Amino acid sequence: MEKSRMTLPTGPDTLCFDKDEFTKEDFDVDHFVSDCRKRVQLEELRDDLELYYKLLKTAMVELINKDYADFVNLSTNLVGMDKALNQLSVPLGQLREEVLSLRSSVSEGIRAVDERMSKQEDIREKKMCVLRLIQVIRSVEKIEKILNSQSSKETHALEVRSPLLTGQILERIATEFNQLQFHAVQSKGLPLLDKVRPRIAGITAMLQRSLEGLLLEGLQTSDVDIIRHCLRTYATIDKTRDAEALVGQVLVKPYMDQVIVEQIVESRPDGLQTMYKKLLEFVPHHCRLLREVTGGAISSEKGNTVPGYDFLVNSVWPEIVRGLEENLPSLYNPGDPDAFHKKYTISMNFLRTFERQCGSQASVKRLRAHPAYHSFNNKWNLPVYFQIRFREIAVSLEAALTAVLEDAPAGSSFCLLASHRTWSSLQRCWSDAMFLPSLAHRLWRLTLQILARYSVFVNELLLRPISNESAKDIKNPVVTSSKDPSVTQGNSEDQGGGPSESKPAASISSTQLVYVVADLDRLQEQLPELLETIKPKLEMIGFKNFSSVSAALADSQLSLSACVPPLSGRIVRDLSESCFSYLKSALEVPRLYRRTNKEVPTTASSYVDSALKPFYQLQSGHKDKLKQALIQQWLEDALSESTQKYCETVSDILHSVRKMEESLKRLKQARKTTSPNPGGPGGGMSDDDKIRLQLALDVEYLGEQIQKLGLQSKDIKSFPALTALVAAAKDQATAEQP
Length: 738
Known about the structure:
Distance between the termini: 129 Å
Helix content: over 70%
Radius of gyration: 54 Å
Number of strands: 2
Strand order of the largest sheet: 1-2
Shape: flat
């Protein structure tokens, strides 16, 4: 305490520490030194501590000098203090003994008061028990007196007595009975109550029989006052559930057994709808009075309603569910998925209409929390229905993906049956004939699985060798290396009964590759349309996070688009190889002109037209299936590859011609003879120049055809170099002519 009030002298501002650190209760020397070392060196810390030590020493001396007189007189002022303290010790001891004695007396008094209060509390409780027992006896006697007075009347008086009077009497008995029940519960365990209990049981049984008879009488005669008195009496004795159960057994059950008949429902196409229509008519026709009395109808007067009842939830609905389970068990059978979907849709519409008849949100909440409501929904075996639909889609899709690549049916926007079946499977998942709101999450997963399976299928097509046959001639079965397990569930049966034989790997034509690319492009274009179909379905179940759905669909679309580049590469490679297979016929040009005495060439060779024929077929045959930009890109890439090889071939030919020409010249010089010109008599163009000129004509014609394809020759790689190569050869050939 004193340490906290200690004031240390203030040091100079140059100190590396705070003087208040020394007054802290958790002051630690090691921590203080390590903290100061972060800021200054140990030598500077030592100098600051010595400086502050001198300040402390000076301040202490000044403090002693200031109070020096008090320090000197301290011993003098304390003379005789011990004697005064001894004189006080005796009276203080006597006071302590008196206080202890008084405390003991007060404790005894408090204990005595507590004992008397405990006895009085026990007496009060026993008195209350006696009073409750007296009240129980009085209530029993009073009720028995009322009953005896009614039973002692003459028979004719009972016959002319009005039901309303009986209802009023029962209401009086119920009020008294309610008090009897309250006091009986409070007096539970007392011997006297056990003796009276048989009389109470008799009163209870009589009251319930009377109430049941009165309620039935009121319902049969449509007497609102009797029903109101009866229901109020049930509420008074806390037996509202008994009244609802009675209405269910007596009023609702016979009607349900009469309407819910399996033979009648199955005998007509609209039998189920007709049955549900009759069930919905029960509430306005047979429950009108009950709803008016209990406040369940719009026309009910609030002042005269009896709260605490919900006959639609606790009487009507349980009997409907019971009747459907017992009398119409085939309703929940998922064996026929189409019939199951129809029954489920009609039943859910019936359920929504029944909820609207409840009249209030509180009643709807009670209905949805009722065990019979959950039982009705759980009876529909939706997982089995989904598995059947899953198998239908998977088997149909796998048949198209693993069989021969066939053309799509007429009128389809796709080229191949596999793509057509994929899109139809996606549409079927969200069609009105298959979709169920409770299966939205499963159908969404199946949608992604179908897209993933198609992507795997396209990747498998890349492994097939390319054949020269047309798509219609390819009948070899497809051999796939793997399948997506997410979509092939349950369709591995019936793989053939004959012995297994090794089948050759299936091939694919270049036309089919083009079809696959066209279908991929078409499928990606239609995915936004699929998303617009899915959104209203998901809104039905209250789903709002459409960004995640769009992101998942975008991932699937990205997976599909990733298949296009390798497919395009194979198409370009096939076009290039097909083109160069004709362009390499340029190797035959020297054989055609060497020592054959042919005329000087004036037209291009026929192999150029043959080389470009696949390009024209692609451009004219698939312009309505593919984007023009994609076709042009394929043509440009294929021509670039084939032209590069063609350029190398032409270069080799010209080099060979030049070497042959030089060899002949050296041979002539060695023999020193004047042999006739190889090109023929008359000193015309030599064979080598004819070869050069023919190659130049071929390349020029190739450039013209490239222009006709809608391409620029300058965009074709190696074509400018090829043009320059043959141009130089042509110049050489023409320059040697006289």
